[in-house]
Structure formats: structure tokens, C-alpha cells
Amino acid sequence: MPGHVKRKLNGDSHRQSRRGTEESPVVKWVLITIALAFCLVFLLLPLANVFAQAFSFGWKGYLGALTDPDSWAAIRLTLIVAAISVPLNVVFGVCAAWAIAKFDFRGKSLLITLIDLPFSVSPVVAGLMFVVLFGMNGFLGPWLQAHPLHLFGKEIEIKIIFAIPGIVLATMFVTFPFVARELIPVMQATGTEQEQAALTLGASGWTTFWHVTLPSVKWGLIYGIILCNARAMGEFGAVSVVSGHIIGHTETMPLRVQSLYEGGSAGTTAAAFAVASLLALLALITLGLKTFLEWKQAREFERAQQAPPHRPAPPASGDLPL
Amino acid sequence: MSIELKNVTKQFGGVAAVNNVSFSVNEGELMALLGPSGGGKTTVLRMIAGLEMPTGGDVFIRGQRVNDLSVQERNIGFVFQNYALFKNMNVFKNVAFGLKIKKWKRSDIKERVAELLKLFGLDGLEKRYPHQLSGGQRQRVAIARALASKPSVLLLDEPFGAVDAKIRQELREWLVTLHHDLNVTTIFVTHDQEEALEVSNRIVIFSRGHLEQVGAPREVYEQPANEFVARFIGVMNVLDTEVRDGIARVGELQFPAHGQPDGTRLRIGFRPYAVQVSPDLTLYPYRAVLRHTFFLGVMLRLEFELPSGLTLRSRMTKEEFNQLGLEGGKEVSLQVRNYRVLAKEGALPAEKEFTYQPPPTIAENI
Question: A146 CA to chain B: closest CA distance, Å?
């Protein structure tokens, strides 16, 4: 059929020619330009500005701003809060994802909804909840003050609001969906057969978890941890409500940025941008890792989906011992 | 006796998936659990493994009651339908997994894995990951993994379900050879009757959670215990007849039915090979015309139409076919050599129309 062949050739040689369902090139390029311009103005320019402002007093000014004792304390506190809340949320996330993906029980959909709750609650409200619960005029605050902990012969008052525990609690609240949310679909996709196989081979539940379950969801888990960490370090609203902004004590990096910026002088503004640049850097690294992991996961998923090539093994490998 | 099930029942939410099943498997036997899907055969396999606990009855492995033993304590090798290889481990680690768990010495593990991989034609693939293997190789890795720590029984769930037809045939032959070489008690689940007949020493046939028959392939083929087995195993000509004057009739076909009252309905079945054909039109009592010929490799399946419109299936080799000088549209004479009564309904009042409901699942294979 020469006609058919010709049409096919034509189609190939005019790759640029548009399909019937496509918009005209003008519309296409206008849309792309708008999207790019939007990203440039609202995302890239401010980001570049952060770094430009941070370095307005040169390298020395930049390092000086970061090593300022109060800023340094804020950086340390942020790391501590993340170091506590992220692992706890990993444990919680794995437990929740496991329960949801591998078991059927009453109230499962309720649990899934509850896990999503922090996404739908304003962080400020979340912080306020803890103030109401543990604050001096709250439900548990006065009781905690009246019942100090006796440790090593010392009396230690458990202070939650305007102290590190409150910041950790608020951070945990806003970040707890991340790990579970990432793991649930991955765990559901892998199913339970590999675990059952491990059991038939004599493995205990714990061994199975460490050697079979965890490795098969590791990319999803790392992805969740990265997102969780980024949010934990960058959280402002909830932490702001519970921290009390005690400079050098209960200020995390985002709060430090705010208080420095409110200082008003050129020096403090530059310092604010210096601290902010660290957060921006964290965001960029997170974005990079996230893209990498998404690619990695997609590849692994493709592998899993791919039907094995159905060909007999080459005779060199011995093939069937008949 | 390697494995014994006594009155085993398994209920899932009030529905009995397995109902009062008893059978035993001898040491070194290659046993097939056969039945249509939903028949309960996989549940039986999983109860032997300890992946499901029976709601009633007892399971014995080598004389020991294992109802209260966990999967880990039963020392069984289980091969899952989709193999369930650990995708994050390479071939070596997959096979070595059970041995590591059982705290074998490192050098012993290395030796055992090498031995198995060689036996299974997998040497050289130690470093490959499951996604880098073909379907047949994956299955062999799964079996090697299951056999590594020398289990007392090898259990396979639909072992040939996940590979294509050509590999399936190779794997069947391979499984028979493997079983012959290792002589480990093996139970496998299949819904393919041909596979069960070809591979196993004995077959347990299930339908809807009930055990229908246990027997050697030849036994269940030639002496099916009931209509279900008769129709599930192999191809069968099935005819509903009615008795008149001591003879069961349908169309022009007649089968002796001594002592049956008139009006009795008999369901009669016979295998294709029981239909004898001759080009000599006077040799056999019935006349028929060859309508269709199906080529099945060495064998041919033929469909003959009788003047009344009845169609009978027969099978013969190509040589026989040529000797008889058969061709499409040719008229022949035929007879039915032996047959079985599959079901019987008593005589009914003539005015009431009798309808017979055939059983639902009928595998019509070769």
C-alpha cells in the first residue's frame, strides 16, 4: 500500500506538525512563557535576593552573623528539635503505615483521616492547642507545676510551654503525616508475600521487618524523612505560638530570622538573611534529594512492574538439569 | 506418612473455604492439589505450611501434630505463586536467607548455596537481582530458596501459573526430574488438570472446599468418583438420556440400562477415546459425519455429527486418522466402547418438564 507508506513517511519527516488535539504554537508558547515568568518573579528572584542580602557585608559579615551566639543557639535548637521529632515521627509513621497497609481493622479509615489532620489544621491553631493544654492557665500546666520531677536528688519542674518540649511537641504535630503518608502506598504496593516468604524460611517477625520490609520501602521512607525534616526545621507558626521567643533559648531558626529582621538596622537585616539563607539552602537540598528519590522510586516501581523477559536461560548457564 | 490432614476445616467469616478434608501424603510423594479457583486448595496448602490456622481438625507432619506450631517451627519449604523473592537481595542472598536465620556456619552456607545453584542451573547468577532474571530463573531461585535448609516437605502454590506456555512445559518436566533426584515430599497446587495428570504421583481434587477424590492420575481419569471429577479431569462426552424399555436413549444412541424404570433420566459420560470409528459403514451401529478436525500435535480431536444432530468428540493419532482415510464431511460408522453413568434422576410424571442443572465449572481441555 504505497499510500499508507507515504503517509507514514510524511508523518515522520514533519515531527513538528501538530496533532489535531494540540493548541496552536502561539498558545503553547504564551502559556510556557507565563509559567516561566511566574516562577522567575515569585520564586527565583526572592531566592536569589535572600543570598544577595545575606552576603551584603561579604563573607565575613555572613559568617559573623551565623556565629553570633544567639543565632548559633537558634541553629542548635533547630537541629535538636529536628533530631528529636523526626526519629519519633519515623517510628510513628512506620507503625501507622504498617498497620494501615498490612492489616484490616475497624476504624482504619478513621485512622487515615486522623493522620491527615495536621495538614488541615492551621499551624497556629496547633500551637495554640498545646498552649491551652500545657500553659499556666491550661488543663495540665498547673498540675505539672505542682508535681515537679525528682531526679538525682534535684527537683526539676517540667516546663512544656515556652520551653523545648513544647517546641518539639508542636513540631511533631505539624510533621507527623509526612512519613506515614509516603510509606502507606509503598507498603500497600509491596504486599505481604515477601514477609510471608521470610516467615516460612524461619525468620522472626523482627528479622523479617529489618531484612525484608524495611529494605523494600527504604526509598519511600527516606523520601518521607526528608520532607518531614524540611518541615520540622522550617516550621514557624506552631513553634512561634509555643516558644515564647526567648532569645538564645527558645528561638528556632525561623523565629530568629523574624526577630533579627525586626531589629531594623542594616546589620540585623543582613544577619536575618544570613540565617534565612541556611533555610533556603535546606530547601534547595531537600528539593534536589526529593527529585532524585522520586526518580529512584519510579525506576524501582517500573522494575517491579516489568514482566520478566520470558526467554529460556542460555545453555551456558546450565539451564535445566535434565 | 509424611503429611496427614484429619477432618480439617477452615472458615473465613462463617464461610467454609475448606470443609472437613482428610487425606495423607506419603514420604517422597509428588502430590497435586487440583480444583477450580475458589476450591480451597491453596488454603489447604497454606494450612499445611502454617500460614493459615485451621478452624477445625488436625494437621500432622511426620507424625507430629503441628496445629500449634508456627510457620517458622514447621520446617517446610514454601514457593509462592509469584515467587515472592526478596527484591532487595541478590540470588545468593535470597537462597542463603533461611540458612542465615538457622545460624549455619558461613562456609557451610556458601557450600550449600553453590550446590543448589549448580543443581538448578543457576550458577553464575549469584549476583543478579530478581528483576534481572527471567520468569523460569525466578522460579528456580524460589525453589532453591525453599529447599536450602532441607525442609521435610516442599509446598508450591500454582508453581507454573506465572510463566508462559513454553516455559511451563519445561518447568513441569524439570520439577518431575528434580523431585526424582531429591526425593523430597512435594505438594503443589494447580487448577490445570493436564498439569496435575502429567506431573504428580497422586492427585487430590477439590471443589468448593470439599475433597472430591484422591487417587493416582490414571485412577481419577479412568474411575472418576463422581460427575464433578469426571468432567473436571480431561474431556468427556456428556449426554442426558431417558430410559425407555430398559434402554437409555438420546437421539439414535442407546445404552443398556437394565432394571431402570421408564422415564428415568441418566446422565452418561464417556471419554473421546471410547468412541470407535470405522470407514466401513456396516461395522458399527451408528452412522455419523466428520464435521471438524482439531490438530493437537500428535493427537487429533474429531467431532462427529449424528443424523439426529448429536455431536460426539473422539480422538486418535494422526496415523490412525490416515489409516482410516478420514476427511472432513466423510461418512463413517461409530460405536461407544465404554461409558459411565454420571448422574441419575428418578422417573417423573410425564407432564412435568424436567430440567437438569449441570454443575457450573467444567474445564474443557484437550
Answer: 51
Question: Rounded to whole angstroms, how far apart are CA atoms B255 and B268?
Answer: 9
- Which range is least confidently modeled, A31-35, A296-300, B63-67, B222-226? A296-300
Cross-chain Cβ contact B71/A317 below 8 Å: no
Question: What are the tens digits of pLDDT across the range B292-330?
Answer: 998 887 888 999 999 988 999 998 888 888 888 888 888
**What is the rounded CA–CA span in Å between residue B193 and residue B203?**
9
Please tell me the pTM assigned to this model: 0.74
- pLDDT above 80 for A247: yes
Q: Which of A207, A307, A317 sits opposite B101 (nearest CB)?
A: A207
| CA-closest candidate to residue A76, choices A66, A87, A64, A86 | A66
Q: Which residues of A62-85 are buried (b: 16+ CB within 10 A; e: fewer)?
A: bebbbebeebebbbebbeebbebb
Helix (H) or strand (E) holding A134: helix A123-134
CB A220 within 8 A of CB A239: no
CB-CB: which of A304, A312, A317 is closest to B125?
A: A317
pLDDT at res. B363: 38
Give the one of B82, B135, B145 whose C-beta lies nearest to A310's C-beta: B135
Retrieve residue B273's grid coordinates: 477415546
Q: What is the ipTM of this complex?
A: 0.77
CA A95 to mean position of chain CA atoms: 18
Q: Among partner residues A194, A304, A320, which is closest to B121 by beta-carbon distance?
A: A320
Residue A215 Cα, gap to closest chain B Cα (Å) = 7
B53 touches chain A (CB under 8 A): no
Q: What confidence category does residue A81 fall into, taking pLDDT thresholds of 50, 70 and 90?
A: very high
A212–B164 CB contact, under 8 Å: no
User: What confidence tens digit (pLDDT) does each residue in A298-322 have?
Assistant: 887 676 655 444 443 333 333 333 3
Q: Do A199 and B145 touch (CB under 8 A)?
A: no
